[in-house]
Give the backbone structure.
Amino acid sequence: MKILFICLGNICRSPMAEAIFNHKARQLDQENWASFSAGTGNYHIGDRPDSRTLHVLSQKGIESTSRAQNISSYNPHDFDFWVAMDTSNLEDTRQAYPEIGDRLVLMTDFDPISPGKPVPDPYWGDIPDFEEVFTILDRSMDRFIQHLQEASPGI
Ligand code: 4NP
């Protein structure tokens, strides 16, 4: 199972989602699950995640090895699911790769508290905004993983 998480800059939200997914997959011994992340923008290509993303992750004991890339680095068939952080990421990805079809989803489609509400862009905010993003991603990821397990029993 290969997943691509998508945001705008690929330095705040999607690398956090990637790190959370990979951490949870390891905890579940899902050795064949891997996630990656990419941005719809080109502003930060090659950059490590924002220091505030790394800070919030490290407080939870989670590491990230991500370097920012654009979605154009990937092929539409490279992933089982493409998971966008907000509706503009979703629309930009849909426009670039219409053939992804229903394998393109919104992260918060799986949010049990605020389904469908975008993961807010924390870039112009502060640590509490990054902590809020972590909380949203953490609870949405549990449902997303449940969805993957139901879709592929035994994997
Ligand atoms: P992200 O946040 O999409 O969650 O990585 C952003 C990072 C950088 C910019 C915008 C959003 N930027 O405009 O540089």
